[in-house]
Specification:
The structure holds 3 protein chains of 3 kinds. By secondary structure, chain A is mostly helical. Helices cover about 65% and strands about 5% of the residues of chain A. The longest helix of chain A has 26 residues, at about 75-100. The two termini of chain A are about 30 Å apart. Classes of the chains: A mainly alpha, B alpha/beta, C mainly alpha. The interface of A and B includes residues 7, 10, 46 and 48 of A.
Chain lengths: ~120, ~230, ~250
C-alpha cells in the first residue's frame, strides 16, 4: 500500500480497510492480522496499527477480543453502512469539486448522465 | 508511561563548539523515536552520550534511572554510523563476541537474521561492502533484547534492497518493553516507523511532537516539514 | 576479564605461537651449532650474540604490541565497540595487561633458559670475568627489569589515556602522549627513584663501602617500588578510562 506521508497514516489505513470491507476483500467476521503482522506488512509503526484498530473498534466496525485478536463486525448492515459512508464522501467530494469549477446543480446532473 | 531515557538540560561542548545545548529529551518505553536534523546538528553526539562514549559537559542523562556506565551499557544496544568491529573479525567472530559479552544477545536470532540479510559467517569483516556492513551491524544490534536501541543513521549509504531488509528488521525488533531511537537525515524512508520526532539543529531541539499529530496539524509529511524547517 | 583476555589471545594466537616458537627454534639451532666442544669455542660468541639479538627483537615486539593494545581502542574506530560493552575500564585494561604480563614471563623464561645454557658453555675463565664485572644478584635484577618494562607500557597507556581525555581529535595526540610520558619519567626519576637510590648511596658511603650504585642496584626493594608504581598507574588509567575519556 502506498502512503501519502502528508496525511496521518492511521487515517489512510482506516479508509483502506473500510474500502476493502465494502468491496468484499475483507469478509464480515474475518479475523484481522495482528498488530505486529499488519505493521510489518505495511511497514509502519505498530502503535499506528494499534490506533487504527482502536478507532475501528470505536466505530463498531471491528471488535477486539482480548488475547484473541481483532475481528470484523459480523453484522451485514456493517457493510451497507460503510458503503453509505464512503459513497457519501465520494459524492460530496464530487459536488465540491464541480462547484469549484463553476458547475450549477443542473449542469452537474447533465454531465453526470453523460458518463453513466 | 514509563521512561527509559531522561535527558535534562544536556550540553556537550567541544572546545568552543556547542554540540548539544541544554537539550531535554524523554524517551518512553514501547515507542519508536526519530531524532532528525542536518549533519553536525548534534544527533550523533546525543546518541554517543547515551551510549556512554562521551561524557556530558553539563546537565544530566539517565537511562533506566542510572547514569551511563556498565549497567546502562548492558541494556542499551548502540549502532554507530562507523565501522566499529575489530578488523580481525569474521562475521562469526562478531556474533560470538556479542554472545560472550552481552547476556541479552540471542545468537539463534542473529544467525537467522544473517541468513535473511544474506551474510556468510565465514566472511571477513574487512571485505564487506557498505551495504553488507550496514546489515551486519544492524543484525548484531537488533539481536539483543535491549531496553533501548540507539540507531545512528542505519540507512546511510545503503542500497534499496538492504534498506527494505533493515526497515523490516527494525519493525521486527519492536517490543512494548523496549524503545528505539533512530537518528537520520533520510527521513522519507523511516517516517512511517516513527511515533515521535525531535528536530535537532545546532545542538538545540527546534521542534518535537507526535508524528501523526504533526502530519495533521501541518498538513505535510515529516520529510516536507523537515525541509521547511531546515 | 577472562572473556576479554580470551579474545585478546584469540585474535593474535598465530603470532603468539610464531614468535615464541621462533625464539625457541633459533635458540635450539644456535645451541646445536655449538654442541661439540670443537665448534663451541669457535661459535660461542657469535651464537650467543645472535640469540640475544633475536631475543631482543621479540622483546621489542612484545612491548610495542602491549602499547598498541590500548592505543587502537583509544584512537581507532573499534574503540566504539570496546567502550560500549558492559565492562568497567579496569577490566578492559586488565585483560590487556594480563596478556602482556604472561608474555613477559614466557619471554623471560625462554631467554633466561637458553641464556643460562649458553652461559654454562663458557670457558671457566670467562665466566668468572663476567661475574665480577656485572656484579648484580640475578633474581632481583630480572624481576626489576620485568616490572620496569611492564611499568613502561603502563606509563605509556596512562599517557595515551590522559591525552585522550584532554584532546578530542587525533591530530596532536602522539605529541601530547610523548610529552606526558617524558614528563612522568622525569618526575618519577626525580621524586621516586632518585631519592631511593641516593638513600642507598648514602648508606653505602656511611658504611665505607665503595659500591657502584646504578639503577640496577635496588634489589627487591626496587621491585617492590615498581609494583607500587604499577598499581598507581593502573588505578589512574582505569579511572580515566571509566569516567573521563571521550571516544
Amino acid at each position: 500500500m502506498e502512503f501519502n506521508n502528508s496525511i496521518p497514516i492511521y487515517l489512510q489505513i482506516i479508509d483502506s480497510i473500510k474500502q476493502d470491507i465494502v468491496v468484499g476483500k475483507l469478509k464480515t467476521g474475518q479475523k484481522m492480522p495482528s498488530v505486529r503482522e499488519l505493521a510489518g506488512t505495511l511497514k509502519v509503526n505498530p502503535n499506528t496499527i494499534q490506533r487504527v484498530y482502536q478507532e475501528l473498534d470505536r466505530e463498531k466496525i471491528t471488535f477486539t477480543k482480548r488475547g484473541m485478536g481483532t475481528y470484523i463486525n459480523e453484522e451485514e448492515k456493517t457493510i451497507s453502512l460503510l458503503k453509505e459512508e464512503i459513497s457519501k464522501k465520494i459524492i460530496l467530494d464530487f459536488v465540491e469539486g464541480m462547484n469549484k469549477l463553476g458547475f450549477s446543480n443542473k449542469e452537474m446532473i447533465n454531465t453526470l448522465k453523460e458518463y453513466l | 508511561m514509563e521512561q527509559i531515557l531522561k535527558a535534562t538540560q544536556l550540553s556537550k561542548y567541544f572546545y568552543q563548539k556547542k554540540a548539544l545545548d541544554k537539550v531535554d529529551i524523554n524517551i518512553e518505553k514501547g515507542k519508536i523515536y526519530g531524532i532528525l536534523g542536518p549533519n553536525g546538528g548534534g544527533k550523533s553526539t546525543f546518541l554517543k552520550i547515551a551510549a556512554g562514549l562521551l561524557k556530558p559537559s553539563q546537565g544530566e542523562i539517565t537511562i533506566d534511572n542510572e547514569k551511563p556506565g556498565v549497567y546502562t551499557k548492558s541494556i542499551v544496544s548502540y549502532l554507530p554510523e562507523i565501522n566499529y568491529l575489530y578488523k580481525w573479525m569474521k562475521i562469526k567472530d562478531a556474533v560470538n563476541f556479542f554472545k560472550d559479552l552481552y547476556a541479552d544477545f540471542d545468537a539463534e536470532k542473529a544467525r537467522e537474521s544473517l541468513k535473511f540479510m544474506e551474510l556468510e559467517e565465514e566472511e571477513k569483516v574487512t571485505t564487506l561492502s557498505k551495504g553488507m556492513m550496514g546489515r551486519l551491524k544492524l543484525t548484531l544490534a537488533l539481536s539483543r533484547e535491549a531496553k533501548l536501541y540507539l540507531l545512528d543513521e542505519p540507512l546511510n549509504g545503503i542500497d534499496p534492497i538492504s534498506r527494505e531488509k533493515i526497515i523490516t528488521s527494525i519493525l521486527d525488533s519492536y517490543s512494548e518493553k523496549a524503545s528505539i531511537l533512530i537518528c537520520s537525515h533520510l527521513i522519507y524512508y523511516i517516517e512511517k516507523l516513527l511515533d515521535y520526532v525531535f528536530f535537532l539543529s545546532e545542538g538545540r531541539i527546534i521542534l518535537s511532537g507526535n508524528a501523526e499529530d504533526l502530519r495533521n496539524k501541518r498538513g505535510m509529511s515529516i520529510d516536507k516539514l523537515f525541509q521547511e524547517v531546515f | 576479564m577472562i572473556t576479554l583476555l580470551k579474545y585478546e589471545i584469540y585474535r593474535r594466537w598465530i603470532w603468539l605461537v610464531l614468535r615464541y616458537a621462533a625464539l625457541i627454534i633459533i635458540g635450539a639451532i644456535l645451541l646445536n651449532r655449538i654442541s661439540t666442544p670443537a665448534l663451541q669455542y669457535k661459535f660461542l660468541g657469535e651464537s650467543t650474540g645472535k640469540f640475544i639479538f633475536a631475543s631482543l627483537v621479540i622483546f621489542v615486539i612484545i612491548i610495542i604490541e602491549g602499547i598498541n593494545m590500548l592505543k587502537e581502542d583509544l584512537f581507532e574506530d573499534c574503540g566504539y565497540l570496546t567502550f560500549t560493552i558492559p565492562k568497567k575500564g579496569r577490566t578492559i585494561l586488565a585483560s590487556k595487561l594480563v596478556l602482556l604480563f604472561m608474555q613477559l614471563v614466557l619471554w623471560t623464561s625462554i631467554t633466561v633458559g637458553f641464556g643460562s645454557i649458553f652461559y654454562s658453555k663458557l670457558p671457566y675463565r670467562e665466566m668468572v670475568q663476567i661475574k665480577s664485572q656485572v656484579d648484580f644478584s640475578f633474581l632481583p635484577t630480572v624481576l626489576f627489569i620485568l616490572t620496569a618494562f611492564f611499568n613502561l607500557v603502563l606509563m605509556i597507556h596512562f599517557s595515551l589515556t590522559l591525552t585522550k581525555t584532554l584532546l578530542v581529535n587525533k591530530k596532536y595526540s602522539s605529541l601530547l602522549s610523548l610529552g606526558i610520558f617524558f614528563f612522568l619519567a622525569y618526575l618519577i626519576e626525580k621524586v621516586y627513584y632518585g631519592p631511593f637510590l641516593n638513600q642507598i648511596r648514602y648508606i653505602s658511603l656511611h658504611y665505607g663501602i665503595e659500591a657502584k650504585i646504578n639503577f640496577l642496584s635496588g634489589g627487591y626493594t626496587a621491585v617492590f617500588l615498581n609494583i607500587i608504581l604499577a598499581a598507581i598507574f593502573f588505578t589512574a588509567t582505569s579511572y580515566l578510562l571509566e569516567n573521563k575519556i571521550n571516544i
